[in-house]
Design brief:
With about 375 residues, the protein is mainly α. The protein has helices spanning about 40-50, 60-70, 75-100, 100-110, 120-140, 145-160, 170-190, 220-245, 255-280, 290-310, 310-325, 325-335, 340-345, 350-355, and strands spanning about 195-200, 210. The chain starts with about 40 loop residues before the first helix and ends in a 6-residue tail after the last helix. About 55% of the residues are buried.
Length: about 375
């Protein structure tokens, strides 16, 4: 079975598209647990944390922030709405993913929250619906373009989990989800103010020009689309590669797929680094190099191990590394767009994700 995420992917169990999204970390086989283990508030919280794979949430905010940076805009209230919408849709995909795979999980992973009885299937499905509605509501606060992008993302999440994860189209659907998540951030942040001088109204004694904020022209819109398309494509390529590897996570045995993913991630890192070195901006141009190097190291090392020894555990680690590598990739994309502060903030999520992944598996 295939289950990548927004986002965030696996033959045995890849997270939902919001992870891709896309929109987790290396899978750890937890000890089997029955319904009794979910009793008490602590057990219920733990069960929901496992169902929603909360440690993978840190790979989500960078999509919207990188989208705003790619559009040449500073993060604002609309960006915050986009981040909230992305998180809700991501978690909706996680809950829906477990609900859709509950029969397979009963055989392959009976310790998961649904087959173990710690969470009822109806509760998981209800959570998916509520989280989707919440995500769309948050996106609507950022304007109609953001709501349109969020609706497309939500449709991708539900289509993947309910139908497409078992088809050859799964990696492409996951890639589309991550790209849409970045577009959501760009559209929610909105066009920057463009103040221009206009003649004063008739009868005014002073000659001070009056400023207005006209909409950007078609040329500016086209440039914005092109600026956003490149980082969206980068996230899509990375997500496609990780999702393809995840389809072998349960059984291993594939050498060519991890090698292909390694080539793709290495190329992405190299392109980011070369673009930085070519900019004539002095030391500031070198800022993207650190996250680009971290990206290649986070994703590339486990992929190389999986290619050399394609066992299920090493393949699972490669998938986990690929999902965690989303964070430095997002930071590198933001830095390349000139948003150094945003890049530093996104990169700061990486150690938090790694720490939480030791307690709650992101896959």
């Amino acid at each position: 079975m295939t289950r990548p995420g927004h986002p965030h992917p696996t033959e045995r169990r890849a997270p939902g598209p919001a992870e891709g999204c896309g929109r987790g970390a290396a899978r750890r086989v937890a000890p089997a647990s029955g319904p009794a283990s979910g009793r008490g508030s602590g057990g219920r919280i733990r069960a929901w944390a496992e169902l929603l794979r909360v440690s993978a949430l840190f790979s989500v905010p960078g999509d919207a922030l990188a989208g705003a940076a790619a559009a040449g805009l500073r993060p604002g209230r609309g960006t915050a709405y986009a981040v909230g919408a992305s998180l809700c849709l991501y978690e909706a995909g996680m809950a829906l993913n477990d609900w859709a795979d509950r029969a397979e999980d009963a055989v392959e992973r009976p310790h998961r929250p649904l087959p173990s009885g710690r969470i009822a299937p109806a509760a998981a499905l209800g959570a998916a619906g509520l989280l989707t509605a919440a995500g769309l509501a948050l996106a609507s606060r950022a304007g109609r373009p953001a709501l349109t992008a969020a609706a497309a993302l939500a449709g991708t999440v539900w289509a993947y989990d309910l139908r497409l994860k078992h088809t050859p189209a799964a990696p492409a659907v996951m890639a589309a989800a991550r790209a849409l998540d970045l577009v959501l951030g760009a559209t929610a942040t909105g066009p920057g103010p463009r103040r221009t001088a206009v003649p004063p109204p008739a009868g005014r004694a002073d000659r001070t020009p009056v400023t207005s904020t006209p909409a950007a022209g078609p040329g500016a819109d086209a440039r914005t689309v092109l600026r956003v398309a490149a980082p969206a494509a980068a996230l899509a390529v990375h997500t496609y590669a990780v999702t393809a590897v995840s389809r072998h996570e349960a059984r291993g045995g594939s050498t060519l797929v991890p090698l292909g993913a390694l080539a793709a991630t290495s190329a992405l890192g190299a392109v980011t680094a070369l673009r930085a070195l070519r900019k004539p901006d002095g030391a500031a141009a070198l800022v993207p190099l650190l996250p680009a190097a971290l990206y290649v190291g986070t994703a590339g090392t486990p992929l190389l191990h999986a290619a050399l020894h394609p066992s299920p555990p090493l393949t699972q680690r490669a998938v986990g590394g690929g999902i965690r590598a989303m964070i430095p990739l997002q930071a590198a994309l933001a830095a390349r767009a000139g948003a150094v502060g945003t890049a530093i903030g996104v990169l700061g999520l990486a150690p938090l994700a790694r720490t939480l992944a030791r307690k709650v598996s992101a896959t």
